[in-house]
Specification:
It is a single chain. The protein contains five helices and nine strands; from the N terminus they run H-H-H-H-E-E-E-H-E-E-E-E-E-E. Among the domains are: 71-99; 118-222, Rieske Iron-sulfur Protein (3-layer Sandwich), CATH 2.102.10. The chain is α/β, with parallel strands linked by helices. The chain is elongated and about 95 Å long. The chain has helices spanning 2-36, 44-55, 61-96, 101-107, 138-145; strands spanning 109-112, 121-126, 129-135, 167-171, 194-197, 204-206, 211-213, 225-228, 243-246. It is 40% helix and 16% strand. The protein has a three-stranded parallel β-sheet with strand order 1-9-8.
Length: 247
């Protein structure tokens, strides 16, 4: 009898043991499944589908080229408009720098040389500068023409400085420091060479206006001028001719 109960209890214990072990195994399996579950809540299958859809979306090369072309056009158009605007804004300032009509009219000076006798000197104003006009004598012409180039500080033949031998026209400003030389009026010193003498630092010029002695580096400047047989009035058109000398 007792032997029969033992045989009956052994399977029950085994059954209970198996049940406990089975329950622990199920619990452990559940924990392992929870640890392996994706944090995003999506199954691996869903992730694979999503990545496949994202990878399948591409940009058309034509759309990229069109965008770059439109951007380049806008940049060029903006730069062009800005350049035109800057030019229009600066034009009034640039135009104001041009000489006025009355200033251009004064740039041309008409001088009647008929009353100027041989040996007489005349001073006129041209563009705010004194201009020396010398109706040279035969002796002054000969003295200017016979000078050798080796004697000159700024070598230049007399023929290159005059249009007519009897008339010498030079700007009356010393080329050293801008003083006005003496010699235009009767009784003023003319230096050793019969031309002009600068009292500031002793520069001396001959009858051709060439520097012969002193610190001045170059000859007196010859302004632009023309000879005409008829009297000309001051005008804007005559400004390019400089001095208009009427014989």
């Amino acid at each position: 009898m007792q032997t029969a109960w033992r045989h009956l209890a052994l399977p029950l214990c085994q059954l209970r043991g198996c049940g406990r072990r089975s329950g622990r195994g199920i619990f452990r399996n559940r924990l392992s499944i929870g640890e392996n579950r994706p944090s995003s809540g999506l199954t691996p299958k869903m992730k694979i589908r999503g990545s496949t859809m994202a990878d399948s979306v591409t940009t058309s090369p034509h759309a990229v080229n069109a965008g770059e072309t439109r951007r380049d056009f806008l940049l060029i158009a903006t730069g062009t408009v800005a350049a035109i605007g800057a030019g229009l804004a600066a034009w009034p300032f640039i135009d104001s720098m041009n000489p006025a009509a009355d200033t251009l009219a004064l740039a041309s000076t008409g001088v009647d040389l008929a009353p100027v006798a041989v040996g007489q000197r005349l001073t006129v104003v041209w563009r705010g500068k004194p201009v020396f006009i010398n109706h040279r004598t035969a002796e002054e012409i000969k003295s200017a023409e016979t000078v050798t180039m080796a004697e000159l500080v700024d070598p230049q033949p007399d023929s290159a400085r005059v249009q007519k031998p009897e008339w010498l026209i030079v700007v009356g400003i010393c080329t050293h420091l801008g003083c006005i030389p003496l010699g235009q009026k009767t009784g003023e010193p003319r230096g050793e060479f019969g031309g002009w003498f600068c009292p500031c630092h002793g520069s001396q010029y001959d009858t051709s206006g060439r520097i012969r002695k002193g610190p001045a580096p170059t000859n007196l400047l010859v302004p632009p001028y023309t000879f005409t047989e008829e009297k000309q009035s001051r005008s804007v058109e005559g400004a390019t001719h400089g001095l208009a000398l009427t014989l």
